[in-house]
Amino acid sequence: MQRPLYLGPRLRRLRRELGLTQQAMADDLEISASYVALLERNQRPVTADMLLRLARTYRLEIADIASEDGEDYARRLAEVLRDPIFADIDLPALEVSDLAMSFPGISEALLRLHGAYTREQQALAEQRAAGPGADENEPVREAQRFLGARRNYFHPLDMRAEELAAEIEQAGGASAWLAAKGVRVRSLPPDVMMGALRRFDRHNQQLLLDDTLDAPSRTFHIATHIAHTALRADIKQVLRVESFASRTTATLLLRALAAYGAGAIVMPYARFARAVEQRSYDIEALCGLFGASFEQVAHRLTTLQRPGEERVPFFFLRIDEAGNVSKRLDGAGFPFAAHGGGCPLWSVHQVFRRPGEIHRQWLELPSGERYFSIARTVTSAGGGLGRPRVMRAVALACAADQAGRLAYVTGEEAGREAPTPIGVTCRLCHRPECAARSVPPIGRDILADDYRRGAQPYAFAES
Description:
The protein is 43% helix and 12% strand. By secondary structure, it is α+β, with helices and mostly antiparallel strands. The chain starts with 7 loop residues before the first helix and ends in a 42-residue tail after the last strand.
């Protein structure tokens, strides 16, 4: 099939590799400099005679000169355009091919730009995974700092939520309380909800819920709606005391505090705190008493810091099977609250092997601080055939000297069982004997293993 041959970018690269100006190449080929410029801009095709001149003058193979960039550009562009960032753009294969064949310079520019974008995205992800200080303005980290600075306890919200819980109980339940406010609660099939678990229809004053939600989830979603409405002014007041680097941080905190309010409505402070002591922090027993899920009760346990009525302070962590931390709450100021949870020796990373079972573990940090941890898998979503369920692991940890108050520990056991040595994160853990280490710690020189290789991934210099 005969068609014009455009070799502009290849010709320009050849000229630059030879160290020639357009005028010098024009003199070599016995043509004008303006014609060389037209060839390089793909405004003129390369003729058979010009191919022979190039091959003869610069002692090149014709096949090397004449091989087109278009097909390679088309293939590389097609790969780039499969990036999810372009998913909503209609990009017919013919248009991609035309761009590559007719505008190789533009194609090369797009490929370079996407390459730079990909490298920057990877560097940013690595920077955020690096630990403290990696990105001080990142919204999730900023929201975690806000919650951690207040030990995940918000007195005005808790007091107001307790008042609401009393009103709701007197009204005969959350749905009846909302009905008195003119809001009707309805359960609808998933296809009608179109992917939403909860939606408020303002026009008809209806709170719509997915009818496959289990009882604890349904209760919590109704409480969350009440928190978003009846506690909205209180939440805004809490957030007003600080300015945030981005609107996203404020949005994340609004959602977190609404969930806090919902937990306080379902599990009112005074009643919950009494039950916690009576049941010795037995989470599953508390689930039955308050109609809440394991994760909801564990979350609420991190908030029991009312002045004069404090309970055992806990740290809470939730991760997925890949180890990604999706929730981190600190009610005690633990050192791994800011960036910890990545140590593979912590049982929270192993509970996926035995779903639904509670794993108990004594922990010791490199500084010598000791903690007691319980971890278990929790599931969400699902609710019907073909609807995927998401499994995560949650862990609660408290200081070792508080563990004797928990049903999970006997008095004799507290001082007898050897703790598992864990680190806040590999970058900050200097234990040289750890075989589970993934990266060397910051500030330590690595010894070569030319003559000796131990069981540990790295051997460190003494200083």
